[in-house]
UniProtKB/TrEMBL annotation:
GO MF terms held by the record: thiolester hydrolase activity
Domain Thioesterase: 56-131
Name of the featured protein: Uncharacterized protein (TIGR00369 family)
Signal peptide positions (record): none
Classification via Gene3D superfamilies: Hotdog Thioesterase
UniProt feature coiled coil, ranges: none
InterPro entries: HotDog_dom_sf, Thioestr_dom
Alphabetized Pfam families for the sequence: 4HBT
């Protein structure tokens, strides 16, 4: 396949994954946007506010986990065009409390291209400081991406 067609197919896959993310019901609770700029890389932009706080006045760990897991997951799934991946393990390191403001979750694929994938992610707060990082393992499921509501691959225009 010519590189320009492979690239167009990859771009369509990335946009379809972004659409899938936007349609996920959980994101009604965690307003956020996903961007996949290239294979193996994912960024999620979100804002922490007091709705995400625990009793101590900072973001609850569920916010950390959700965004780190999603960023690493989509970085890995950007390399898989036929199947939905599943998280099989995820380790977190919380290094700094998140307060109200914008946050970016950056995910990167590390290894694996067949059945099991490893990816990591980090949270960057409004000051540009790392607030957390995590590493996950993800495996191919039996769930076809094409059958999922929200995964929409736009047809390529004819030459």
């Amino acid at each position: 396949m010519p590189p320009e067609l492979a690239s167009a197919g990859a771009e369509a896959h990335f946009r379809a994954l972004e659409s899938l993310y936007a349609c996920a019901p959980i994101n009604r609770f965690f307003e956020s946007t996903l961007e996949i700029p290239e294979a193996g890389v994912a960024r999620i932009r979100f804002t922490i506010d007091e709705r995400h706080y625990h009793a101590g006045g900072a973001a609850h760990g569920t916010s950390y986990f959700k965004m780190l897991d999603d960023a690493a997951f989509y970085a890995a799934n950007s390399l898989v065009t036929d199947r939905f991946l599943l998280t099989t393990a995820f380790n977190l390191l919380l290094t700094r409390p998140l307060k109200a403001g914008p946050v970016i979750a950056e995910g990167r694929w590390i290894s694996g291209k067949r059945r099991v994938f490893v990816a990591d992610a980090r949270l960057i707060d409004a000051e540009g400081e790392e607030a957390a990082r995590g590493t996950g393992t993800f495996m191919r499921s039996r769930i076809a991406l094409a059958g999922l509501p929200g995964y929409r691959v736009s047809p390529r225009p004819l030459p």
